[in-house]
Amino acid sequence: MAREDLWLWVRKIPAGRVVSYGDLGRVLPNPVSGLIVGRWMQASPPDIPWWRVVGKDGSFLIGKQSPHLANEQEERLRAEGTKIEGGQVALTAFIDLFEL
Q1: Would you give the DSSP letter of residue 20?
Q2: Which of 67, 51, 46, 66 is nearest to 16 (CA)?
Q3: Tens digits of per-residue pLDDT, 18-72?
Q4: DSSP 3-state assignment of 89?
Q5: Where are the alpha helices (DSSP H) in the chain?
Q6: Do residues 15 and 81 lie in contact, with contact meaning Cβ atoms separated by under 8 Å?
Q7: How far apart are CA 81 and CA 83, in angstroms?
Q8: Quick one: which of 60, 56, 48 has its CA closest to 84?
């Protein structure tokens, strides 16, 4: 059930905006760490916009798993109009989950 709750939240993130792994973990009915969220995101269904989940500083943490995926994440975010500065998402692109 916890993963399904995570998928519901990730699906709500609008194009051009991002949320951190830790923020997602905190809003779940049974909160988990950002590390756990990251592990669950690795197994996300194909319809989940995984590229909208980043490190709390806007970094592309998926690059630890695969530099190719980090490049894809950045390309997808740029295509959505997300502001990226110095190789990470600008803090202005973050959304408060309670706004959703």
Answers
A1: E
A2: 51
A3: 999 999 999 999 999 999 999 999 999 999 999 999 999 999 999 988 999 999 9
A4: strand
A5: 2-12, 21-27, 34-41, 67-79
A6: yes
A7: 6
A8: 60
Per the DSSP assignment, residues forming a β-bridge with 24 are none
Q: What is the pTM of this model?
A: 0.93
- In one-letter notation, the amino acid at residue 88 is Q
CA distance 73 to 31: 25
Query: At residue 32, what is the residue type?
Result: V
How is residue 93 written in tokens? 């692109």
Mark residue 47 as left, alpha or beta (left: phi above 0; alpha: psi -120 to 50; beta: remaining): alpha
Tokens of 56: 């709390």
Summarised one tens digit per residue, pLDDT across range 52-62 is 999 999 999 99
- Rounded distance, CA 72 to CA 66, Å? 10
Q: Give the integer Cα–Cα distance in Å for 50 and 45.
A: 9
CATH class (in words) of the domain with range 2-94: mainly alpha
